[in-house]
Amino acid sequence: MNELSPAHTVYVLVHGAWHGSAQWAATQRALAATGAASVAVDLPGHGFDAPLPTGYLLPGQPHLRTEKSPLATVTMDDCAETVLRTLARVRPHHRRVVLVAHSAGGGPASLAAERAPELVDALVYLSAFVPAGRPRFSDYAGSPENATARGRGLTLGNPEELGAVRINPLSPDAAYTEELRRTHYQDTPPGRFGRWRSALSTDLPLALVTTPLTLTSPRWGRIPRTFLRCADDRALTPAVQDLMIREADRAVPGNPFTVRTLPGSHTPFAARPGELAAALLP
């Protein structure tokens, strides 16, 4: 059987900001139908066990804009170590390990691959941060190429004081929740989005946005990598996705990205998981 066969492959799936392992479930089912195994990771402070601000689920959501995040001490190293532990567990059981990162998950996934390239046979960035050209996620999110991105009014409070980038998925403000949908899930119908937003957490540790990362050609740069562009992404625009691709290819010219484009939003695992699974296959 071909070494690239799905039957020989395990996909390690790393979510982005405010998400968790559960959001990959439909994509995992589609991968399983091809014979591929997969493991979805919960980064520290994410998923159904994520700690929430104390007032988030109370009437009126008291102190939501000011309460220090319980994730303020979570570091990029903490998140990368979580990915590394998963990679180390699956490596002995599969011929091919593919590390897939979405959005802000690109930072921890990249650092894990840099530290242990022997655990990863291929990298896939799904509209994800690639720190090869610029070291911080904020360097790209705040770039001119991302100036047309939506959602800048979704953040609550002062991230530096909170220690996190905080959103309010359960906001009673219909305009706010519609902007959240239009930013990240615009091709998910409003009726279905209510279920998706209820699974989002409030806080992204600030370290995932501000920690500088260094990738090297002999380690991260030796791993074959694919970038899955999201053509109508309103959170990380196609222009900034292309900027990350260009700058990474300039940093490691001997191993450029393979680039594929998916239609639709920043979250294809919600709107078209079957297409996403197909795009992950060799």
TrEMBL record:
GO terms for molecular function: hydrolase activity. It comes from the Bacteria. Pfam families: Abhydrolase_6. Keywords: Hydrolase. Residues 12-279 form the AB hydrolase-1 domain. This is Alpha/beta hydrolase. It comes from Streptomyces albireticuli.
